[in-house]
Amino acid sequence: MGLFNKIFSKKEQVTIEFCEKNLDRFYTDEDFALFGPFLSSKEVSYKQYECQSHCKQCKKSPYAIVNGEFIQCETPSELLSQLKEQK
Fold it and tell me: What CA–CA distances, in Å, run from 76 to 2, 13, 29, 57?
């Protein structure tokens, strides 16, 4: 049964990296509440770093790095929508 799960897996793991400074700068408690269910998904793995050395972009708007791809949006809710499309 384990072999079938590997061969016919429904979705690949999505890895998302966040910058702590960016989260502090743009996110409210309500935004974190919206992200909670998404980040708890089995297909999502996430990590938070103190700094990711994207300082110019970090000061402008919310961003995340998804499977190595930099994604930036105007608001946290827009970013969440983009992240859900990656899943």
Answer: 38, 22, 11, 14
**pTM here?**
0.83
Task: Give tens-digit pLDDT for 5-17.
Answer: 555 555 678 999 9
pLDDT digits (tens, 9 = 90+) for 54-67: 999 999 999 999 99
Number of other residues whose CB lies within 10 A of the CB of residue 81: 11
Q: Distances from the Cα of 2 to the Cαs of 9, 15, 45, in angstroms?
A: 10, 23, 21
Amino acid letter for position 73: C
SS3 content of the chain, % helix, strand, coil (to 5): 45, 25, 30
